[in-house]
Write a structure and sequence with these properties.
- The chain has 210 residues and is of the alpha/beta class.
- It has a single domain (3-209), classed as Flavodoxin domain (Rossmann fold), CATH 3.40.50.360.
- 41% of the residues lie in helices and 20% in strands.
- The strands form two sheets. It has a five-stranded parallel sheet with strand order 2-1-3-6-7, sandwiched between helices. A two-stranded antiparallel ribbon has the order 4-5.
- Helix 1 (17-32) runs parallel beside helix 6 and helix 2 (53-63) packs across helix 3 (70-87).
- The two termini are 17 Å apart.
- It binds flavin mononucleotide (FMN).
- The site of flavin mononucleotide has 18 residues, from helix 1 and strand 6.
């Protein structure tokens, strides 16, 4: 049985464009794969562990092969629960809105929790990082309200799709399909409505041969 993990990083529920496009993809994909098991992870409804002093110290201890204090071990174990849920999936679906040119802070927190040495990456002093999450694939929906790729500098920059796609590659997920809805929601609602419909249709189409 294939397990698909859907990580929703928009808190906007029924107003969320990225979630609606992800659902269009998911419905079409599930229609083709009746055996698929979907784990839906809404980052706003299931609180993540805080990632602060002891968690950061635990990471540095793990990286330097040092012994952790009991407090650090406790934080490390909390992070491992989040990592276990991530790594047990075979496939990933992410919907990622642009927030202030980057990704929403809870998605970044989720990334900081699971991106640990020995879990999702290894490090070699000469060769650098190696991704450890092998044989998996991801489908990612990006949305923005103003920014468009190739747009004028005054309309923002991409530390969003660039960052998240790079993180996927860094941890070893190189089979990535992404779909970008840059609808000018805030500037041209008519243009946005057309682009939104087209992106939903494209998501369904991609689901038929993903
Ligand atoms: C907190 C916040 C920050 C945002 N920052 C940007 C931004 O930097 N650039 C941009 O183009 N759109 C920005 N937007 C607009 C959203 O990216 C856009 O509305 C997108 O469709 C949101 O995805 P969602 O509908 O799935 O929530 C921002 C929206 C919010 C709520």
């Amino acid at each position: 049985m294939t397990k698909l993990l859907h990580v929703n990083s928009s808190p906007r529920g029924e107003s969320s464009k990225s979630l609606a496009i992800a659902q269009a993809f998911n419905d079409a994909y599930q229609a083709r794969h009746s055996e698929l098991k979907v784990d839906a992870w809404n980052l706003y409804q299931e609180p993540l562990p805080n990632y602060a002093t002891n968690a950061a110290a635990a990471k540095m201890a793990a990286f330097g092969h040092k012994k952790m204090t009991p407090e650090q071990e406790m934080e490390w174990a909390r992070c491992e629960i989040v990592y276990d849920r991530f790594v047990e999936a075979d496939e990933y679906l992410f919907n990622v809105p642009m927030w202030n040119h980057g990704v929403p802070y809870l998605l970044k927190q989720w990334i900081d929790i699971i991106t640990q040495p020995g879990w999702v990456f290894g490090f070699h002093p000469e060769q650098g990082y190696q991704g450890l999450v092998k044989g998996k694939r991801a489908f990612v929906i990006y949305t923005s309200g103003v920014y468009q790729a190739g747009g004028r500098p005054g309309f923002g920059a991409d530390f969003h799709a660039e960052f998240f796609n790079d993180w996927l590659r860094f941890i070893g997920i190189t089979n990535v399909t992404d779909l970008y809805y840059a609808g000018y929601d805030l500037l041209s609602p008519e243009q946005a409505a057309v682009a939104y419909k087209a992106t939903q249709a494209r998501a369904q189409e991609l689901a038929s041969f993903w």
